[in-house]
Amino acid sequence: MHANSATPTIEQVRAFWDRHPLFTGEARHPTGSRGWFLEHEQVYINDCFAGRPPDPIFTRGLDSGCRLLDVGCGPGFWVRYFLRQGFRHVSACDLAPRSVELTCRSLELFGLDADVHVGNAEELPYAAGQFDHINCQGVLHHTPCPRRALEEFHRVLRPNGTLCFSVYHTNFLLRRPWLLKCFSRICAPFIKLKGRGREKLLASGRADEIVRMYDGRDNPLGRSYTLAELRQLVEGLFQIEEVG
Q1: CA atoms of 175 and 119, how far apart (whole Å)
Q2: Whole-angstrom Cα distance, residue 76 to residue 181?
Q3: Residue 5: band (very low, low, confident or very high) from pLDDT cuts 50, 70, 90
Q4: Which residues of 14-24 are buried (b: 16+ CB within 10 A; e: fewer)?
Q5: What is the pLDDT of residues 84-137, one digit of tens each?
Q6: Model confidence pTM above 0.85
Q7: What is the 3-state secondary structure (H, E, C) of the chain?
Q8: Directed axis angle between helix 34-49 and helix 77-84, to 10°?
Q9: What are the Cα distances from residue 119, in Å, to 75, 89, 162?
Q10: Among 244, 230, 47, 84, which residue's Cα sits nearest to residue 146?
């Protein structure tokens, strides 16, 4: 979480992501161009899936006719992925209007179609029971009240609907402050992520600041979770079936 004791507001989160959409400052191509979207797809697949197609966990048990919602669509990677996999009823939303614009632009460029709107994960603009499945990758750790977002996911899903989401993991290094400080001192000169002021990512040597700054120097909110914390977060709403 941010170093300040007060949790940032949803408007502060919206403002940051509207100024700094995902992947801005990291690419060779102009933001919003066909080449930019293709470059983001390749970088995402290389970084998250070792250059292979996304794990089947993202579509397991789903049929092409299911009503699917992508929450926090960013520049539209997952929206395009599901459409290319043959899903016919894909909706998406993002807190930041600029991200919605980018997703819509990408659909136009690649000849795809989805229902895309501005929408806050903590107050989704959809009716109860409207969807069969929700995809939410890398969003909950940026929203001020993740439990409220999960309650909204539960509301808009049909009975026995499914959810696939990801958050930052509090890994071995992040759980050990003394080791993290040593690692940061040694590696800070060599680990400098591109874009959004992330060149001094390891400067603080503190887990909370490193997690926050991973998405940008001015990012107001970033969290990481242990598995036990995740189980507590979803308790009473969802049953965890698989962890990847």
Answers
A1: 33
A2: 36
A3: low
A4: bbbbbebbbbb
A5: 999 999 999 999 999 999 999 999 999 999 999 999 999 999 999 999 999 999
A6: yes
A7: CCCCCCCCCHHHHHHHHHHCCCCCCCCCCCCCCHHHHHHHHHHHHHHHHCCCCCCHHHCCCCCCCCEEEEECCCCCHHHHHHHHCCCCEEEEEECCHHHHHHHHHHHHHHCCCCEEEECECCECCCCCCCEEEEEEECCHHHCCCHHHHHHHHHHHEEEEEEEEEECCECCCCCCCHHHHHHHHHHHCCCCCCCCCCCCCCCCCCCHHHHHHHCCCCCCCCCCCECHHHHHHHHCCCCCCCCCC
A8: 90
A9: 14, 18, 20
A10: 230
Tokens of 74: 């960013």
Q: Name the amino acid, one letter, at 51.
A: G
